[in-house]
Amino acid sequence: MEGEWPWQVSIQRNGSHFCGGSLITEQWVLTAAHCFSNTSETSLYQVLLGARQLLQPGPHAIYTRVKRVESNPLYQGMASSADVALVELEAPVIFSNYILPVCMPDPSVTFETDMNCWVTGWGSPSEQDRLPNPRILQKLAVPIIDTPKCNLLYSTDTESGFQPKAIKDDMLCAGFAEGKKDACKGDSGGPLVCLVNQAWVQAGVISWGEGCARRNRPGVYIRVTSHYNWIHRIIPDLRFQSGRAGGH
């Protein structure tokens, strides 16, 4: 449906989609730090907003250039903490029914396992395939998995001699223990949103996983609330959503 996820953006390099992101103000997009190995080459990047499909974005979509990219200085490489970046657009965008920001949670918002949460993106439908044309935005309802359970899943069936990947404090797992459905390559940086008090609030940024939709390897997201101070420092006038509502 057009305008169903109006904060979803496509971040493109030399005209091709490589990461997702979410619009959080009229001039800032939240995404993953691992999407940008080189934050200085801003001229190569553009952001597509208001689109449902990538091939023919349609009359509501706009492209905008990138002014700067701020990666979290604590980020240390794939599957590490602080895999978040902020992208400043060249000029503020005008909001419409198809281009709107998602709510940012302040640290009082807790995301529970029973909440209604969705992940969206134009990434690959599986490890082998590319999203077929016209490359329509995909959505998937995913349950949040609590961290102790997620660590247990990631320590199951690990190859001998390999240290299982640890789910750090600023990470959040969502998906299915049996696999089957998950975010994948090209979805990185996109949003995991949950319904809190009738508003869509971004719980996480798509960060990493072991393959896609593999058994015992749910998707791992960076918690937005863990990086509240860093986001607030870069965008001082950003308003955050508070709330102590459960998932009912």
From TrEMBL:
InterPro entries: Peptidase_S1_PA, Peptidase_S1_PA_chymotrypsin, Peptidase_S1A, Trypsin_dom, TRYPSIN_HIS, TRYPSIN_SER. Residues 1-236 form the Peptidase S1 domain. GO terms for biological process: proteolysis. The keyword Disulfide bond applies. Gene3D superfamilies: Trypsin-like serine proteases. It holds the Pfam family Trypsin. This is Serine protease 27. It comes from Heterocephalus glaber. The lineage of its organism: Eukaryota, Metazoa, Chordata, Craniata, Vertebrata.
